Amino acid sequence: MEVKHVDGRFRLKENLGTCTKCSMFRAANLVDIGHTVLVKIGQSKHHSLLEREQAILHQLRGLSGIPGVIWSGTEFEQDLMIFEDLGPTLDDVFKSTGRRLSMHTIVFLAEHLIKFLQHIHSRSYIYLNIRPQNILVGPVLPGQQTNELCLFDFSLAQLYRDPRTYSHVLFLSGRPLSTILPFASLNHHSGNQLSRRDDL
Questions:
Q1: Which of 30, 141, 143, 168 has its CA 20 to 30 A from that of 181?
Q2: Global pTM?
């Protein structure tokens, strides 16, 4: 069955495409009129994918640059997650500026993304999904001089060490490629065990 409404509060209005084996939509908030949210719908054959992502986001809660989950659940036999709609992706912004970014903007992005990754790594996870389509660019918040940024789509994130003992996972080779080819690290292309350096 095609999903048109979610949780009785949100109406799908814009198909944003796919996001790691899930469909992405922008939806209108029927309770808080004028506000929109992002809805991620998992494909039935990948039933546990959103559950896994939700568990990872729970472990990363409280960190800057992590999307806020408004609601998650199952409707019409499909897994769904609803996120805050921070704004357009960096890819959208890049295209809207004629595919040009100022040096100031590039430095700003680098500083914030490195900080976000450092925080994620401190929780024993690696992100493994850096690409313009997964970076949301929000508005300038009151009292601040820069835009709010947020990483999106944590479906590829994984532990690089034991969260309790901090022992790193064993090095393995011959591993399958699990991310978007143009953005995969050399280690990933070589089939090697991934670690923090592959986020950079």
A1: 168
A2: 0.87
